[in-house]
Amino acid sequence: MTPEFHRIRRLPPYVFEEVNRLKARLRNQGVDIIDFGMGNPDMPTPKHIVDKLIETARDPKSGRYSASKGIPGLRKAMAGYYDRRFGVKLDPDSEVIATLGSKEGFANLANALTAPGDVIICPNPAYPIHAYGFIMAGGVIRHVPALTPEEYLSGISRAMKHSAPPPSILILSYPSNPTAHWVDLDFYREAISLARKHDLLVLSDIAYSEIYFDDNPPPSVLQVEGAKDIAVEVNSLSKTYAMAGWRVGMVVGNARICAALARVKSYLDYGAFTPVQVAAAAALNGPQDCVDEIRGIYKSRRDVLVESMTRAGWAVPAPPASMFAWAPIPEQFKEAGSLLFSKLLMEEAHVAVAPGVGFGEYGEGYVRIGLVENEHRIRQAARNVKKFLANSTEILDRAHNALAAQ
User: Fold this and answer.
1) Which of 132, 210, 214, 318 is the most buried (most CB within 10 A)?
2) Mean pLDDT over residues 139-157, rounded?
3) Residue 177: its pLDDT value, please?
4) pLDDT at 401
């Protein structure tokens, strides 16, 4: 029998795929699933961005190969955004790389920076690419519990002390997917200090930096003095401008790390379709009232979700940022675990969420709820959840009997 390919063998079964198969089966049966499972923006991309795409696509030359590190105009727009938003000066030629979304940027950073056996400090729970990008590149993950930023920061020194060989890279991700926490500059100052002390490179993911609900916007690690000496930041237009399917992201910061990424990408791709890149530059350089509007929609949905689910009997904490709520499993279903709870919620209440265990072992006991349905659908989900919780004993009995019969 042919053995499984080496890199595939290093990947565990994809937890979300089990939930997605159930979702597909129920939809094929005609069930209307209220889907909070995937962070897939449902709002239209702002008109001026789409118009720029169409205008540029009409150029007969637009279908030619582009540039793997991004066209100059887009890299200048990305540098301009960092200057305006964070007060961080970047050289568009050496400190900015346009990527095919933040996920591709992160995965190719892992390929560029990792030798087999390198140890990477990664938060847990975390967005899966943060760990598995490095695992596929041959790295070894040192998971550090990160249900709060303080817990993660306090665990870094312990991870350094008990890892062999010593870790080489520290991953940060705030606002966090999935926990929705964000941090202030003091956190980043301490993280950079720790990284310098232990000779670590820092990769910071801030794909949700523009989706926040308090008065103070989340900062960038590059605002810390000297951070550019050891750090890069991964960012994205996906959520900020409702452009998830456009696949436009960026890696910015340390020139040496950016050069390594650019070299890897030069072997792998020719960059995004040029009209997409031109439209992305128009998004960054153009009016930003659309960003405020998108943020306002997420905030309104957050408020409706928290209020309606609480009335239904499920206490969902209000996320301070991101497009997700990170919710403890209702007490009745604690022993079932996040995967079984998510499947039962979909089968019985027709509500889809992402099981916390899919983001790492320390995500067990939670689920992630995406703010990707409108307010009417959120209220309908809460009504379904109320009935679901009221019948929890009967539902769990049926589930346990079904498992016993297998």
Assistant:
1) 210
2) 96
3) 95
4) 82
Q: So what's the pLDDT on residue 2?
A: 64
Digit-coded pLDDT (tens) for 54-92? 999 999 999 999 999 999 999 999 999 999 999 999 999
Q: Pick the last residue of a domain from 285, 311, 329.
A: 285
Match 């919780």 to its residue by tokens: 389
Place of tokens 């995500």: 363
Predicted TM-score of the model (pTM): 0.93
Contact indicator for 368, 353 with CB cutoff of 8 Å: yes
- Angle at which helices 274-285 and 72-86 pack, to 10 degrees? 20
CATH classification at residue 308: 3.90.1150.10
Question: Within this chain, do residues 280 and 298 fall inside the same structural domain, yes or no?
Answer: no
Q: Mean pLDDT, to the nearest integer, of 245-274?
A: 96
Note whether 260 and 322 are same-domain residues.
Answer: no
Cβ neighbours of residue 225 under 8 Å, at least 6 residues apart? none
Count of domains for the chain: 2
User: Among 285, 311, 334, where does a domain finish?
Assistant: 285
Q: Which domain holds residue 238?
A: 61-285
Is the pLDDT confidence value at 348 over 90?
yes
